[in-house]
Amino acid sequence: MSLKSQLNENNIPRHIAIIMDGNGRWAKKQGSERSFGHEQGVESVRATLEAGVELGLDFITLYAFSTENWNRPIEEVQALMQLLVQAIANETPTLMKQNIKLTTIGDVDSLPDETKEKLQECKDMTSNNTGMTLVLALSYSGRWEIVDATKRIASKIKEGTLALEDIDESLFASSLNTDGIPDPELLIRTSGEYRLSNFLLWQLAYSEFYFSEVLWPDFRKQDLVDAIKDYQSRERRFGKISEQINN
Ligand code: FPP
User: Fold this and answer.
1) In a domain, 8, yes or no
2) Does any domain span residue 174?
3) Which among 214, 207, 210 has a CA at the least distance from the CA of 227?
4) What are the catalytic residues?
5) What is the pLDDT of residues 114-157, one digit of tens each?
6) 47 lines ligand 1 (CB under 6 A)
7) Nearest CA to ligand 1 atom 12
8) CATH number of the domain residue 93 falls in
9) What is the best residue among 18, 19, 21, 30 to mutate for testing ligand 1's pocket, by most ligand atoms within 8 Å of CB?
């Protein structure tokens, strides 16, 4: 059965954001190092992207490394950065084949040079792809992004190119890293944790949340379909009442 045929094709989200959690616990269960869990997590990223393309999503945002993840043991941070370099190099041909464009959000300047270079190469190579966009959140946190946007706006005010009255939600949204990217309709977090962990704080204001018990390295296409099925059973009211939505 195709993935689409399990879903209402008229109500598939355009943008799904995912907190990929549980790599460490998955590895521990196997008696392995945490980094083995991250390595296996790349397989789940591959499956998720394939499913996203099959379903016709426009955007998938993955929380790959948070601002707070810098506080992990140095060996794990280095292993994650190395894994990113490797995964990007290995997966770029697949991104090309699947017409996926790579972009990033977060304080990418703070990443090691090799990671930055590989990311830039992949962004350049995929920049003309017109299918789905993969947004990697790297050295990202929602609060950092909001403060960063505030500074940009404040400096425009200071230099006299922006008036206080011009600040509204739309201007603020366009000062965020996600300028031009629609807000996710659906947020998925794996591994049975029920937190936002500083992810897309502004953008998730009206998103539906789906929490899965599956550990990220076990996450496969069907898990994505199950999350979307659950999303399709929700009534999104955006502050209105049910009757207003249904009339
Ligand atoms: C959270 O699990 C996962 C991460 C901090 C890293 C996620 C990164 C990958 C899956 C690899 C990225 C690759 C690409 C190409 C995007 P955790 O370590 O917090 O798990 P735990 O809660 O069980 O300890």
Assistant:
1) no
2) no
3) 210
4) 21, 69
5) 999 999 999 999 999 999 999 999 999 999 999 999 999 999 99
6) no
7) 64
8) 3.40.1180.10
9) 21
